[in-house]
């Protein structure tokens, strides 16, 4: 008899995660939340600890031909800190593990760690351990981050309520356009190595791709303003995909407005240049590492004047669906593409 074989691509990334987690049993009462949010939550008495981990692989998550190692080290930390921010927590420690091939010199590893150290200083975290091993399949970096938040102030994906206001920080779609630009310049260079990449014009979007910054500034400001979001997630896979997570876990619907979506001019212009729809880039572009959160209506006044928090819509009842009101005032159904690694 032929053995059953299911391709991972049939499940997709999220399907695979669900499948692997089906049989997990939590054995300790101190494990408040295991898999299923931006970070796990552990009971530590007066506070809760949040933990998140990420794996970055050469050729899947980054391309060494245009990724400076120092930026890569910084980004590896930033994407993890972003998950801690998404829990409304403050990062405290990281572990850093790397798999290195013999292509790497000590100088190259130093450059990578210069970026890791710069991020540790920027986010005020201690590097407390990790592992180093050889790799036959290119560079591998895995970072685990531990953070803390006062008990009761942790924010999950599951707390959004009907009529809450949906907020997004910064601007979206830039990291995707940065990737498009870098890939194009790589092709030009491969075809003719005498051609030097023309990147000055695209400095903002390529910076968004190569050296993203986790929005810890927003977490500190929310604290100062005494605002605890009702739900939160970081935007790593694209706005639409993250909205779907909040809808699923909170049991709600959403209505967002196209004309409220934040997009930088350089992102918009480069999308047009590449023949892409700028709004599609905003909805489905990954790796911006901004925050998506919902607040109670009564907290609106506290954030109204914030220059970098955008009110993009509101939460609805689940049966109202997931809709975007376009500039021409028609409501269209949102689709989440997310990132397909498989
Ligand atoms: Mg996340």
UniProtKB/TrEMBL annotation:
Family: Belongs to the thiamine-monophosphate kinase family.
Annotated function: Catalyzes the ATP-dependent phosphorylation of thiamine-monophosphate (TMP) to form thiamine-pyrophosphate (TPP), the active form of vitamin B1.
Keyword Acyltransferase: no
Span of domain PurM-like N-terminal: 36-149
Additional remark text: Reaction mechanism of ThiL seems to utilize a direct, inline transfer of the gamma-phosphate of ATP to TMP rather than a phosphorylated enzyme intermediate.
Keywords: ATP-binding, Kinase, Magnesium, Metal-binding, Nucleotide-binding, Thiamine biosynthesis, Transferase
Positions bound to ATP: 113, 130-131, 157, 236
Signal peptide region: none
Entry binding sites for Mg(2+) 4: 38, 52, 83
Pathway terms, separated by semicolons: Cofactor biosynthesis; thiamine diphosphate biosynthesis; thiamine diphosphate from thiamine phosphate: step 1/1
Domain named PurM-like C-terminal: residues: 218-325
CDD domains: ThiL
UniProt source species: Echinicola jeungdonensis
UniProt GO MF annotations: thiamine-phosphate kinase activity
Stored Pfam families: AIRS, AIRS_C
Entry binding sites for Mg(2+) 2: 54, 83
Protein's gene: thiL
Protein name: Thiamine-monophosphate kinase
